[in-house]
Amino acid sequence: MKLSNATLAALPESVRRPTYDRAGLTPGILHIGLGNFHRAHQAWYLHRLMQLGFAHDWAIVGAGVRPVDGEQRRKMLAQDCLTTLIELDPAGMNVEVTGSMIDYVPVEEGNAALIARMAEQGIRIVSTTVTEGGYYLDPAEKTFDARHPDILHDAANPERPRTAFGAMVAALRLRRDQGVGPFTGQSCDNLQGNGDVLRQTVVGLARLSDPDLANWIDQNCTFPNSMVDCIVPATGPKELALAREIGIDDAVPVTHENFRQWVIEDDFCAGRPPFEKVGVTFSDNVHAYETMKLRLLNACHSAIAEAAQVLGVDTIAGCMSHNLISAFVRRLATQEIAPTVKAVPEFAPLDYAELIMRRFSNPKIVDTTRRVAADGSSKHPGFILPILKEQLATGGAIEGLALVEAAWARMSAGVREDGSKIDINDPNRADLVTAANAARTRPRAWLEQSQFYGDLSRESRFADAFEGWLSLIWAEGISIALAKYTT
C-alpha cells in the first residue's frame, strides 16, 4: 500500500495512524535537516500532541540546504509528508504513521524559498538537526569559525546564502523590517549547550554583514538549550523491506528504539507547543541532562564503534555481544566517565550507564558501527575530549579514554586487521588518514592535530598512555589492547 493521505484508512489494522484532520493543520515550525532522527523524535512528540487534540497550528515544514535534501523532499512530498515509524524492541514491534509534517520547502541555490517561508509570521520556531559538525565551529576552541569559506560567502552575499544559518539571518532581517517579530531557534543536535551554539553561529554570522541586525537577533530571539535522545539507525534496504512486510510502501521509513527523552529550557520568544503533555521535560538544568547523555551514550557509542570498525564488527548490538568490546565499554563508562557526571532527578550516573548498556544491546536495532563511527573529528572534541580534560584536571583515571583515542587513530588508517578497507566517513578524512599513517611509527603525530587536541599533546600523562596503547595496537592488535585494559 503506497503511503499517502488517501491510503491511511486502508493501512493494516495493527498500524496506528493520525486521528486528527491533517487538512486542518497549519504550520508553526520549520525544521532544517529533515533526517531520520528528527522524524523519530521532535516530529513524533508533535504528532502525539496532535493526537490529543493540541498543537494543530504548530505543524512542521521541512527544509534543507544540501543537494541531497532535494531527493528527500521529492520522496516526502510523494507520500504527503507522512512517515512510518517502526519501533523495534526484543519484546515486540510497534508501527505508527505520523502526520505532523505537512510541507517541504524547495531546495535551491540561494535559498530564496526557505528564506521566504521562515519570514512568514506563522513560523514561530526554526529548529535544526544539521549534525554536531554543522555549526561552523573551530573544533578545538568551540568558537564560531568566521573564516570558513561558507561563512565568508554568506557574509558577502547575505541575500543569497548557501548555509542554513545564512538563510536564518536573511529571514530574520525580513521579519525585523516587516515588523513580524523574532522566532525561536531550536537546535536538536547532540551538542553541549546546543542552543548557545546555535545563537553563537547565527549572531556571529549576522555580525559579519549587519551588526545592527546581529544585535536585534541577540536581544529578541531565543535559543533554548536542549538534550535529545533516541537511537535511530539509518534507513537502508532492510528497513525498506521491513516496511513492505508490514504492508506499507514508504520510501523513507524510520526504525527506532523504544526509548525517547527530550529536555528543554522553557525559553521560547514566540510561543511553543505544550510538549510537557507528552513527556517532554522542561528544566533550568539542561546542562546536567545533556552532560550525562553526551558522555555516557554518545562518547561510549564512538568508543565502541571505532574499535569495532577495526575488528570488522558491523553493528552496535554486535559490539555488546563481543566479549572484549562490551567489557571495554562497561569499564570505561563506570570507571572513567560516570565519575564526571552528576545525577539528574530521573537517574544516578551508574544507573544511566546500565540503561545505556541495555539500549546498545538491543539486537532488533541494526545500528551500524560505520554510521556511529562517522564524523569523529566532530564527535571526539564534542563528546570525549571534555571528559579527558576533566579527568586530567582532577587526577582521575584516563587509561580507557587514551585507548579510545588510540582506537580512533587506528581506525583512521583506513584498513582493518583482516586487511579490508575502512571507508573513513569524515569531512576531515584526508588529514586524519595522513596523521594516522604517520602515527604508525610515531604515535604522537596523531596528537599533534591541534585543531582537535589543542595542547593535549603536552599533557604527558595522556600522551604517554596514548603512545603506549597505539604502539600496542599496531604491534599486537586491538584485541590485545582491549584485553589488557579490561583485566
From TrEMBL:
User: Mitochondrion: present as a keyword of the record?
Assistant: no
Q: Which residues form the Mannitol dehydrogenase N-terminal domain?
A: 28-277
Q: Does the keyword Oxidoreductase apply?
A: yes
Alphabetical list of Pfam families matching this protein: Mannitol_dh, Mannitol_dh_C
> In which domain of life is the source organism classified?
Bacteria
In this chain the Mannitol dehydrogenase C-terminal domain maps to 285-467
**InterPro entries per the record?**
6-PGluconate_DH-like_C_sf (IPR008927), 6PGD_dom2 (IPR013328), Mannitol_DH (IPR000669), Mannitol_DH/Oxidoreductase (IPR050988), Mannitol_DH_C (IPR013118), Mannitol_DH_N (IPR013131), NAD(P)-bd_dom_sf (IPR036291)
Extract the Gene3D superfamilies matched here: N-(1-d-carboxylethyl)-l-norvaline Dehydrogenase, domain 2 (1.10.1040.10), NAD(P)-binding Rossmann-like Domain (3.40.50.720)
Q: Which UniProt keywords apply?
A: Oxidoreductase
Protein's UniProt name = Mannitol dehydrogenase family protein
Instruction: Give the species this sequence originates from.
Output: Albidovulum litorale
